[in-house]
Amino acid sequence: MAANENSQPEATISLEVFRYCPEQEDEPRFQTYEVPYREDWVVLDALNYIKDKIDGSLTYRWSCRMGVCGSCGMMVNGEPKLTCAAFLRDYHPALIRVEPLSYFPVIRDLVINMEGFLDKLTEVKAWLVPKEEKPVSEGEYLQTPAELAKYKDFSMCINCMLCYSACPVFGHHEEFLGPAVIALAQRYNLDSRDGGADERAEAIFSHEGIWECTFVGDCSRVCPKNVDPAGAIQQAKVTATKDFYRSVLVPWGK
Amino acid sequence: MELISHDILIVGGGGAGLRAAIAIGEENPDLTVGVISKVYPMRSHTVSAEGGAAAVIKPNDSLDNHCYDTISGADWMADQDAVELFVDEAPREMVQLEHWGCPWSREPDGSVAVRPFGGMKVERTWFAADKTGFHMLHALFQTALKYNNVTRYDEWFATKLLVHDGTCQGVTALELRTGQIRAIAGKATILCTGGAGRIFPFTTNAAIKTGDGMSLAYRAGVPLKDMEFVQYHPTGLPGTGILITEASRGEGGILVNKDGDRYLQNYELGEPLDVNDPEHPRKRAMELGPRDRLSQAFVQERQQGRTIQGPYGDYVHLDVRHMGEKKINKKIPFVRELCRNYAGIDPVHELIPVRPVVHYVMGGVHTNIDGETPLPGLLAAGECACVSINGANRLGSNSLTELLVFGARAARAAVCFSAQTGTLATEELLAQAGQEQQRIRKQFFEPSSGTETIAQIRLELTEAMEDGAGIYRTADSLTTTCDNIRHLKERFKNVELADHSLTFNTELTTALELEYMLDVAEALAHSASARTESRGSHQRTDYPERDDERFLKHSLAYQTDGDPRIEYLDVVITRWPPGERHYGSK
Amino acid sequence: MSDQETKTKEYRRPMPADWWLKKRTYSLFMVRELTCVFVGGYSLILLILASRIGDQESVTAMLNSKTLSVLQLIALPMVIYHTVTWLNLTPKVLVLWRGEERVNPLLIAAVHYVAWIGVSIVILCVVFAYG
Lengths: 254, 586, 131
Known about the structure:
heterotrimer; A: alpha+beta; Fumarate Reductase Iron-sulfur Protein, Chain B, domain 2; 7 strands; B: alpha/beta; 19% strand; globular
């Protein structure tokens, strides 16, 4: 799309980007950049253009640029998005505001601190706890396609944190386990090979767990992989309630 | 500043690195493991792999079949002892991963399902829909969380191997959060840093695939083996290079040119079957031929004007419409999502534009079958290593399995080595870390002419690689590329950073990555220049024949003060004497 | 892993008191939650009415009360909104499987709607029969 002398100047679009350089200032600011507008460019392409050609100090995370690694989540015009999947053409010619993911502490520019998420994964024991031991020499655990379907959606989480940035509960209480972590715990709870639901119960059925959730539902709306974490949490609430009544009404049963 | 110390270090937190960490935890939980990764592990490029991982499980399959397919696919450059071992351990590793929760797609009876894949006589590719790498990586990452002896250093960028007394005793790493260079000591260090597709302009690879570990080893005197062999995956989206998995062809997709012809039939890949024929797709034929042959066919079609012209160069079409919406949603749903988002088409109704793009580097850090490099204390596994099982051309779905088999093997070898190692030279290592901090400060933060930008040098590097070291090469094109790389290395000295911050300085890491890329490019171009034959993915129009007499050998590229020194090492042949690669016949 | 002292300060963006006005989905959520007050209020009226069964006069007085009528008129759309949002969310909680496929969520919600309307009609018939 090179401009030639007789035609219009090359189309552009402006990005207003959140900047925070802790060594230079205490408060963040916004900086506006003008970049070429391309039909097939995404916001990430625009950020890369800025870093390569205009301002090398602009700092952000990215990697796969195909929506599977989960690195490039940012707020685009106030909505949490994967910037590798947010097309400039959906915003052009208006200004695009890019900010770090909401409700997380900002380390620098568009980079947030996500250590809390990793700690929570360990807390809920987000790994397979086999129901029965089986030596590898005896082959795979059998699992029918129907059994796989039950937890498949919850296994699609790319850990992009967009759901946390949509959750006002997490915005107010950062100890809340949050949508992705609970969905991952459910992924294992519903896996027919898993027997660890009891071990996970303490962490999930706690004040920082499912009972913090008020079913705003925005997490599922912004999830780029249709994991439906809101569904996972509500289903967990039903399970917890059933278990509670069962333990009260039939205390001698399992 | 104090020294961080572990029994075993792993650089890279992808499939191989995490498998290695778990293996150490299983073998000896008293050993401490440090996993140093420049990104959070779930961002590692393993996550983008789609098609599947190969391991023999069907009753009509055999280990020898898998061996033969791999060795012939590799155009006989694979070490057969390594391949035999790989094929033998593969099924066990894959079942182990299933036990750790990997959600493999299943047959109706609940057993693991397999699909056909390029270059393989019998179906043996395990798959998790078409996001196999994603599911494998997350299964490994979540499993690794169980092990208390594993400490992760997330977003720590390795900058140098610490070598003392002829052994590798650890690494220095830039802690992105604070900008400090830290020394991390380890009795054994395993490099699991992946490939280097980013030295080419069109690649399926993520931004992080910059050959870091390859360069670290190279600079420490370890040779890089078979660097000239670079795989172009036949079906990437034009422009972005985003991967459209081989599984689309395994499930029956076909490649057609401008005229709608299934052109592969003109390239000794057999006769096409009708798409509705129950035998379609026939294995080891047509669209299920090996990747090097398919990519070469594209170039020849283009030379004859039978490809379609587009804004990002020429392309052909991948047609999966006959599969129907239900099968596409079940077997290759991610492909459909990628096409809609990034190609603006729905593969259920429209043709997918595809072209060969760089995907995998067969070459890498020279190791033996246990992942050990010639430098004691240094091991390597995964794409960054070259054992070699992939030789001159890798078969699709062998690399994901390779991560598991060799990640585990290298870990076990590292455990053995660390048991024999005494105390490490703490003072010396800290001193080296101090020097490393000085080097980086001097090179990137002190004012230089500042005439060069990272982006410009990187752009010229990728252009030089595609022009001279692409699918077809000549002596002249390679010499030009070697010269260009030499000049770019000089010009790199004039790069000055705009970002002087210590907090999360990604301009610095991008510059360090570019330095790694230049090393890898240099080894690649010179190795290619020295190999005057055509084999697998290394095709010379000036030497179009395979020459077993002179070149049934691995190339070893050693760093020197000038151009790399290339030596040769015989390929290990056990039960499969070199033969012709035959595809297409029944 | 590294010294706390070498880390620069992270910036925490304050959560504004009017956070629920910033996004349409948040505002609708708050409206939904507020309708609970009206559901609670209406339930209270019904409970008081129920407790007075047998006392013909006070029941009639309550039913004829203009204030209570107005309150109920305000409560009606709130309770309907509450019910509709609640019914729309039932497929999230009630996940049914037919082999590998999920039972269509719309079907699950539809069944609930049909039940709601059905029960309402029955109640109305009963009320008018005795009215």
